[in-house]
């Protein structure tokens, strides 16, 4: 049985927003993350999905303390990270890394690739044979050690993301937060990066939090999936359960929007179209936050917030009226190993 590496409990993040009307300035609170709880095991990939603005990236950054959580608990290998002093946090960060969404913006254009990959050694004051180690890391992600002397603009988007992955691996981490690591890449390049991440996980025993909005990619790489809506988790389950038997209306709507490659199947599919806009996180709806767009909403949904309850087999759903609907999405996307 795998050992638990991360435990997030009641995580909350609130941002203060200022509004100016002439000389008058008012303040309000944005609830970006509200009471998120989940666990992550060794060598497991947790997919975190949701619309833009759902709070999934904020969750990842709060876990790493790149953003300070407003409340809640984040335990990494039994150590509480919330409130941990900077020196202790610096030591733990050797084991927790992140790969950012934009592979170009995350690299300093004035520094060589070798300097970028070696930067963690300088920050953590780790004494290694830098040139040899950088070459080893570049080779690990499918690049040539000779690339160390080049600059980021000389590489394609996929190659730059591989450089970001090499930098994240420099200090031998146990867990990596992947913040939409392939969303900025061409579809043909995405497959190569996703396959690389899976190979690295098998070889190094890594744990991933894979943040994304592309449900076909999440299906391919994740062991479990957590669905977020307006700062809250609405459904958490093994990947097969989410894709074949979604129980929350929001999850069902997301999956119905996934295109089917076979045109005959696609023409016969029935889509769930959500009405209205995502409410403002400054003033979220009472009760269930999804009720303003939910086709099954009743008065109870406005009066009482649904709890994230295990409906069996580790399938957690936050809905007063969960309904298991079988969704035939066809076979998972076939990512060519040669890419």
Write a structural description.
The protein is α/β, with parallel strands linked by helices. The protein has helices at 56-63, 86-92, 113-124, 130-140, 157-169, 187-204, 215-221, 239-244, 249-256, 263-268, 299-303; strands spanning 4-21, 24-41, 45-49, 71-76, 79-80, 96-99, 175-179, 207-212, 224-229, 232-238, 309-310, 316-317. The strands form two sheets. Strands 6-7-8-3-9-10-12-11 form an eight-stranded mixed sheet, sandwiched between helices. A four-stranded antiparallel sheet has the order 2-1-4-5. Strand 4 (71-76) and strand 5 (79-80) form a beta hairpin. The chain starts with a strand and ends in a 22-residue tail after the last strand.
Provide a compact summary of the structure:
The protein is of the alpha/beta class and 339 residues long. 30% of the residues lie in helices and 24% in strands. A hairpin with a 2-residue loop joins strand 4 and strand 5.
Radius of gyration: 21 Å
Please tally the β strands and state the result.
12
The global form is: globular
> What's the quaternary structure here?
single chain
**Major sheet, described briefly?**
8 strands, mixed
H-E order: EEEHEEHEHHHEHEHEEHHHHEE
Mean pLDDT equals 88
- Counting helices, strands and paired strands, the structural category is alpha/beta
Strand order of the largest sheet: 6-7-8-3-9-10-12-11
Roughly what fraction of the amino acids lie in strands?
Answer: 15-25%
* Helix segment tally: 11
Query: Which ranges are low-confidence, i.e. pLDDT below 50, for 5 or more consecutive residues?
Result: 326-331, 333-339
Tell me the helix content. 25-40%
Distance between the termini: 33 Å
């Amino acid at each position: 049985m795998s050992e638990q590496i991360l435990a997030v409990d009641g995580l909350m993040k609130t941002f203060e927003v200022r509004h100016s009307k002439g000389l008058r300035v008012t303040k309000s609170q944005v609830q970006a993350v509200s009471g998120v709880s989940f666990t992550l095991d060794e060598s497991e990939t947790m997919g975190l999905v949701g619309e833009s603005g759902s709070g999934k990236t904020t969750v990842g950054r709060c876990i790493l303390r790149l953003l300070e959580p407003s409340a809640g608990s984040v335990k990494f290998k039994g150590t509480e990270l919330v409130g941990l002093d900077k020196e202790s946090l610096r030591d733990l960060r050797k084991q927790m890394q992140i790969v950012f969404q934009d592979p170009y913006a995350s690299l300093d254009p004035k520094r060589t690739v070798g300097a970028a990959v070696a930067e963690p050694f300088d920050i953590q004051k780790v004494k290694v044979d830098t040139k040899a180690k950088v070459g080893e890391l570049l080779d690990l992600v499918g690049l040539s050690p000779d690339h160390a002397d080049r600059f980021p603009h000389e590489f394609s988007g996929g190659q730059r993301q591989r450089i970001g992955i090499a930098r994240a691996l420099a200090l031998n981490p146990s867990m990596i937060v992947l913040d939409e690591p392939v969303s900025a890449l061409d579809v043909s390049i995405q497959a190569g990066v996703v396959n690389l991440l899976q190979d690295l996980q098998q070889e190094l025993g890594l744990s991933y939090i894979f943040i994304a909005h592309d449900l076909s990619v999440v299906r391919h790489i994740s062991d479990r999936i957590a669905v977020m809506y307006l700062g809250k988790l609405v459904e958490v389950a093994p990947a097969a359960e989410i894709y074949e038997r979604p129980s929350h209306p929001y999850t069902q709507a997301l999956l119905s929007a996934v295109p089917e490659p076979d045109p005959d199947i696609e023409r016969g599919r029935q889509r769930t179209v959500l009405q209205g806009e995502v409410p403002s996180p400054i003033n979220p709806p009472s009760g269930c936050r999804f009720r303003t767009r939910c086709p099954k909403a009743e008065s109870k949904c406005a009066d009482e917030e649904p709890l994230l309850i295990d409906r069996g087999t580790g399938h957690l759903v936050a809905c007063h009226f969960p309904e298991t609907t079988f969704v035939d999405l066809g076979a998972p996307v076939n990512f060519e190993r040669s890419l």
